[in-house]
Amino acid sequence: MRIVYIEAGKKPEVRNIGHSLKEMQKLVGGYIETIHPFNDTAVIVCNEEGKINGLPLNRGLMHPETGELYEIIAGNFFICDAPVDSDEFASLSNQQVETYMEQFKYPESFIMEDGRIVIIKCINI
Fold first, then answer.
1. pLDDT tens column, 39-72
2. pTM for the full model?
3. Cα 60 to the chain's mean position, in Å?
4. Which of 8, 16, 56, 87 counts the highest number of beta carbons within 10 A?
């Protein structure tokens, strides 16, 4: 299955992985959870306990209508397709790979400023 894999502090990369739960858990470092933030069938697969376990903050998710930060993913994660008519994850299309490689292109850092979280994109990595 072709995915976009995003390690904390690094640029995304395209990988081919198997469909086993064990392999997916290894990529995220624990139990998996899915987040459905996109306008297509792609999902984020991340560590269910990433924040609780103090994994490094990785990327922020912005609300598509307001542009406001609504979630920060902690730890490594990947993006794959989750077709509506299937119980299995699937490979991303070429267009999806291109979209998510661009969307998550730069590692991010987060700081508190005036009581709100600000994202700093790290473009020199």
1. 999 999 999 999 999 999 999 999 888 888 999 9
2. 0.93
3. 9
4. 8
| The two structure tokens encoding residue 2 | 């072709």
DSSP-based three-state secondary structure for 36: coil
Regarding beta strands 2-6 and 77-81, do their DSSP bridges make them parallel or antiparallel, or are they unpaired?
A: antiparallel
Range of the domain at 33: 2-121
Beta pairing, strands 57-62 & 2-6 = unpaired
**Bridging pattern class, strands 32-35 and 13-16:** unpaired
Chain length of the chain: 125
Domain count, the chain: 1
Amino acid identity, residue 10? K
Tell me the C-alpha distance between 62 and 37, whole Å.
9
